[in-house]
Amino acid sequence: MQALYYVGPERLEMRETEELPLVEGESRVRIQATGICGSDLHAFHGHDPRRIPPLILGHEAAGEVVEGALKGKRVTMNPLIVCGDCDHCLEGRQNLCSNRTMIGMTRPGTFAETLTIPDHCLIELPDSLPAIAAALTEPAATALHAINRLERCLSRPLSEARVLVIGAGAVGLLTGLILRYKGVRHLELADTNPLRRQTAVKAGLTAFDPRERSLEEGVREAVFDCVGAAPTRDMAVRTVRTGGVIMHLGLQDNEGGLDVRAITLKEVTFLGAYTYTPTDLKATVDLLDSQALGPLDWVEIRALKDGADAFSQLVAGKTPAAKVVLVP
């Protein structure tokens, strides 16, 4: 089969490779659509020691089972492979599994014509949900999981909150679209990339450049940092109101920017969110199938063989697409 390999920092190659043999309890999925995640870009730069080249990256996908118990079924997948026995799994928090592994990290990922994956990771798709839309399940579930965590910490209903989303990449844009679906009326996205802002506006959201506008400090009940860099953490702390909530989703760097004195004096709740649970993924499939997030025409579709060029364009900020989906 053909697969796109990460072979070293900022180096990707299409290679012919053998399919892995199928083992008991697993299925082989023919990939129909697979998204490029920010963590794939992080690995591409050589900044993720967990992803050791040569490796097939990719973990956001939809396809059809061609071998295994669900043969013939259309599926998306939970890229986290969990043990089911640790305390976190038994509590229903499988995303925190003490023994988790992951496709596209510890085993071959979805930037290929097929992959093998445990059956418990597969989620059946309704016939009405196209593969391109279904490939957004993973990033949209990340956003939904974070929103649900933050919502439990608010003193008033989420729909009444003034909300700022920092970053209009895939997770930021999907966070904004889900918040709109949940009835949030006072919602803005901040992003320095004009192409990303145009995409957010096209999707029906309000977006601005934080470098060109004086931000009101201490007025937002909820702030989502979908970048995770020192300047965006600083922005989140400055703009959140007393008693508000910050959700930290991005993982761009770990170089400060967090004013813990302000967090303490303002009694701010600072949260992190890691991926999603199986329940989040299933809820997201329903959400996408209902078209509650509007038309997904902001997704850019590329051939898998053009994946290296897609990575280069994303790194250079030359594409307006919040999400690039590769099709084998």
TrEMBL record:
Alphabetically sorted, this entry's keywords are: Metal-binding, Oxidoreductase, Zinc
Work out whether the entry's keyword set contains Phosphoprotein.
no
SMART domains the record matches: PKS_ER
Q: Name one GO molecular function term.
A: metal ion binding
Record bears the keyword Oxidoreductase? yes
Enoyl reductase (ER) domain residues: 8-326
Q: What is this protein called?
A: Zinc-binding dehydrogenase
Q: Which organism is it from?
A: Cobetia crustatorum
